Amino acid sequence: MADTLDLQPIPDPAAWTCPAPLRDQPRIVMGHGGGGALSAELVRHVFAPAFGGDALAQLGDAAAVSLGGLRLALSTDSFVVRPLFFPGGSIGDLAVNGTVNDLAMSGARAAYLSCGFILEEGVELETVARVADALGAAARAAGVEVATGDTKVVEAGHGDGVFVNTAGIGLIPAGVDLRPQRVVPGDVVIVSGAVGVHGVAIMSVREGLEFGVEIESDCAALGGLVDAMLAVTPDLHVLRDPTRGGLAAALNEIATASGTGTVISEREVPVPPAVANACAMLGLDPLYVANEGKLVAFVPREHADAVLQAMRSHPLGGESRIIGEAVADHPGMVVARTGLGGTRVVDMPIGEQLPRIC
Predict the structure, then answer these.
(1) Ranges for the PurM-like N-terminal domain (predicted)?
(2) pTM, two decimal places
C-alpha cells in the first residue's frame, strides 16, 4: 500500500452538471410550462429562432419597445390554474394581476389589457360569469382597462373549464431602465414579502389538505409598489415577480443574464410558518414555490435603505426584507447561506414543483 494518497484537484462547483433526462424528451412534458430550465430551453431552441427580433431577445417579463417616440412595455400571459377559485383569488384575478405585474417589472404602469377566453363545452355559465366578474373587479382595482377580447369554445374533454389569456401595454417613464444586464456586484437583493404563499394556497385546496390555518394566495397587482420604489430613485437595476419556479428561478434568471453571482441568506428569506410546515409535509422547497403578489429587486447599495423604507411604507411591501447581494464570484450561480452556517447552490429548477398554479 502506498504511503501517500494520490490527491486529485477539487473540481470547480460552477462546472458541475446533473443528469436531466427530461431534457431529452421528444415530446412536450408538463415541465416545459413550469418556468424553469425546460421552459428556457423550449424558448431558446424553438420559439426564439422561429420568431427572431431584438425585442424578443430581451426575454424579460415584458418587452420594452419604442413606438412613435414612446417607450412602451408589452406583455402577454395565459392562465390555466386549477381550481378556478381558491383562497385569496381566482383565475380572473390572476389574469389581470399576472399581466399587470409583468408590465410593472419593466417600470411601466399598465394602461390597457386584452382578454381572451377559451371555454370548454359544458362549463356552467355561472362559472364563466364569476370569472369575468373577478377579472373586471381586479382590472378596476389595478387601474387598467380591458379594451378588447376574444372568446373560443372547445369540445367537451378538450379543455378544463376556463382558460384565460391576457395581454397588456403600458408606458415606461423616462429614465427607467430595468433589465438584468444592469446588475453589478454589490447590488442589494430585496424581496417584498413572504414567499411560497400562492403555490401552497393552490395545492391546499386542490388536494384537500389542511395545515391548521387557511393559507390565502398573495395574488395582487404590484404597480403601486413599483411606483413607490421608483419615486425614491429611477435607478433601480432590475425587478422580477417570482411566479413559476419561485424565487429560485427569478434569481437564477437574473444571475445568468447579468453574469454576476448572487448570495442570499436563507434565514432572511421570509417564509411564513404555515408555508414552511406545508412545504416540509409535501417535500417542497419554499424558494421554488410560486408567488403572485411579490417582487424581488436588485438595487444599487447607495439607494437600498431608502428603497426598502419606501417598500415597507406601502401596503404590499410591509414585510420587505434585504435577503442578499450580487457578487463577482461564481458568475451565473445563486448560493444560499444556510442557518447552520454552510452554503448550498440554489439551482434553476428543471420544471415546476406544483403544476397548474397560474
Answers:
(1) 61-172
(2) 0.86
